[in-house]
Design brief:
CATH architecture of the largest domain: 3-Layer(aba) Sandwich
Largest sheet: 7 strands, mixed
Number of strands: 12
Structural class: alpha/beta
CATH class of the largest domain: Alpha Beta
Strand order of the largest sheet: 2-8-7-6-5-3-4
Shape: globular
CATH topology of the largest domain: Aspartate Aminotransferase, domain 2
Radius of gyration: 22 Å
Distance between the termini: 24 Å
Length: 383
């Protein structure tokens, strides 16, 4: 709902709160911790603890729950990507750990399929690694990968986004792992949102990848939290690069700025436990209901096309696609997006890159806000 108390703390600061119909996006704050996570974080305030010990103990709990060899907590999935590149290049050599981001004398090239370039692959470069494309815009073959692996190749990176239809023109992860490991090269996977169905959680490590990341915000943990899942060897090397390694071992790795608090680590553990115990049928039913509530006021409005997003994979199930016909409404999709931002209360949504329609998600919406969103779009179109 939007009451007088809604967003008051932001208005007191002179900032404008918004209704989030975009989803779990960083620019709007990512997530709201669920009650179980808040309770666990409050309980963590009761004592201090050496964080290197907490990382190890909590990592074992999560790794066992997920079914992977090892887990480590990071300040978001992007942090995990940066730490793993440092871990692969410097290994357990303390001199090299302190040398980064200067990669002289290290294997420092990470291969990525040209068709798999994406917005967050920048995180792979922050420790000094170089991204090298292989394949072409038309696709990737096994031979492309074989030919691309050279003396400086440390890893092949793969982007997993199972919400989208499988790209038949890319090299599969199975074949990527097979070829890379034959050549003695690591395989890393960005699987930040691949948390449902539950068998997808950690699947890529179980398939044989050396590492994958998860964004814990998608499960109701704080926005600034994530996880690295992987082999025991890889997670150990990541720990050497982390802020706890920096402070406990007094070795100056690149991970010092990416610190977490004890409350956040405990909060992620609580979020994982909850994710593996809640009734996901109820969760999906709620998301579908809220999506239909957005769509309801728009049905039958001339010039407006409304379609339910039927996706249930990953972190943002269902949602609504909306498109307006300028010849009928006198407005474009971008006009609607801009108008929603000027609405009172302000509503944020977007047209994804390369798309021709507005995508609305219910991940960040509270009860009662769905009707506000749907009716605001209707008013913009008909007003």
């Amino acid at each position: 709902m939007v009451t007088s108390e809604w967003g008051a703390i932001y208005r007191e600061l002179g900032a404008r709160p918004v209704i989030n119909a975009t989803g779990s996006v960083t620019l709007l704050g990512g997530s709201t911790p669920v009650q179980e996570v808040k309770d666990a974080m409050d309980a963590a305030d009761s004592a201090f603890i050496p964080l290197i010990e907490l990382q190890e103990a909590a990592g074992k709990v999560v790794a066992e729950a997920v079914g992977v060899p090892a887990a480590y907590f990071t300040s978001g999935a992007g942090s995990a990507l940066t730490l793993v590149t440092a871990a692969m290049m410097a290994g357990d050599d303390d001199d090299k750990i302190e040398q980064l981001p200067d990669t002289t004398g290290m294997k420092d090239e990470i291969l990525i399929q040209k068709r798999q370039r994406y917005w967050y692959d920048r995180c792979l470069q922050l420790a000094g690694a170089k991204l090298i494309e292989f394949g072409s815009d038309d696709g990737t073959t096994e031979q492309d990968l074989i030919d691309a692996i050279g003396p400086q190749t440390v890893a092949v990176h793969y982007y997993a986004h199972e919400q989208d239809p499988a790209d038949p023109h890319i090299l599969s992860l199975e074949k990527t792992i097979e070829i890379a490991h034959e050549k003695g090269v690591y395989v890393t996977v960005d699987a930040a949102g691949q948390i449902f169905p539950l068998e997808n959680f950690g699947k890529y490590v179980r398939m044989g990848a050396d590492f994958q990341c998860i964004a814990a915000k998608y499960m109701g943990a704080p926005h600034s939290t994530g996880m690295a899942l992987g082999t025991e060897e890889m997670i150990h090397k990541i720990s050497l690069q982390s802020f706890t390694g920096y402070e406990t071992r007094r070795i100056r790795g690149i991970g010092r700025p990416q610190k977490m608090d004890r409350q956040e680590i405990v909060g992620v553990v609580a979020a994982v436990k909850r994710w593996f115990s809640i009734n996901h049928e109820d969760r999906l039913e709620d998301a579908e209901r809220m999506s239909r509530e957005i769509a309801a006021p728009l049905k039958g409005v001339p010039g407006v096309t409304v379609e339910m997003n039927q996706n249930t994979i990953g972190h943002q199930p269902f949602g609504v696609f909306v498109s307006v016909d300028p010849s009928v409404t006198g407005k474009t999709n971008q006009d609607i997006v801009d108008g929603l931002r000027e609405h009172e209360p302000s509503i944020w949504t977007r047209i994804p890159d390369g798309a021709d329609r507005i995508t609305l998600h219910v991940f960040g919406l509270d009860e009662g806000q769905t009707e506000i969103v749907g009716n605001a779009i209707k008013d913009l179109v008909t007003g």
